Amino acid sequence: MRKSAKNNKKGFTLIELIVVVAILVALMLMLVPKLTGFTDEATKTANTANARAIYTAIKATETAKSTGMYGKDDATVKMCDDTVEVYKVFWEDAAPKGTCSYNPAEDYVKYGTGNTEGRYPMPEPEASAGTN
């Protein structure tokens, strides 16, 4: 007996395709939050590097002013919401408004906003109470 060609079905049923799509959606829902965490951490690292570069430019300008290395006629750039002037030789363009702040009293620079904000120098970790 020969089987007829009509009974020879090839391909997947609709139920099988729906199950595969549901599994793929579940995997994507688990993966997306992990990927966004990586981008936030990368942005924070970049902002910390920018804060360090700005801090270095500020300190280099302070040293240059105190030693008389550059004159009053040398070009400067206003940084950190126009609170600090840096010689153009150390930094070409001003940081975007609202992204940089310099605290001269505590001597640190913050760059960025929110949970991706970078700071330099980084604060010292607090010692735990049980440590001698």
In terms of quaternary structure, what is this? single chain
Describe the largest sheet: 3 strands, antiparallel
Going across the biggest sheet, name each strand in turn. Answer: 3-4-5
Q: How far is the first residue's CA from the last residue's CA? A: 90 Å
- Residue fraction in strands: 5-15%
Number of helical regions: 1
Radius of gyration: 29 Å
Global shape: elongated
* Low-confidence sequence ranges: none
Helix content range: 40-55%
- What structural class should be given to the helix and strand makeup? alpha+beta
Q: Could you report the average pLDDT, rounded to the nearest whole number?
A: 83
Provide the fold topology.
Blueprint: H1 14-67, E1 76-79, E2 84-87, E3 100-103, E4 108-111, E5 118-120
General description of the model:
There is one protein chain. The longest helix is centred in the N-terminal third of the chain and has 54 residues, at 14-67. It contains one helix and five strands. Strand 4 (108-111) and strand 5 form a beta hairpin. The strands form two sheets. Strands 3-4-5 form a three-stranded antiparallel beta sheet, with helices on one face. A two-stranded antiparallel sheet has the order 1-2. The chain is an alpha+beta fold and 132 residues long.
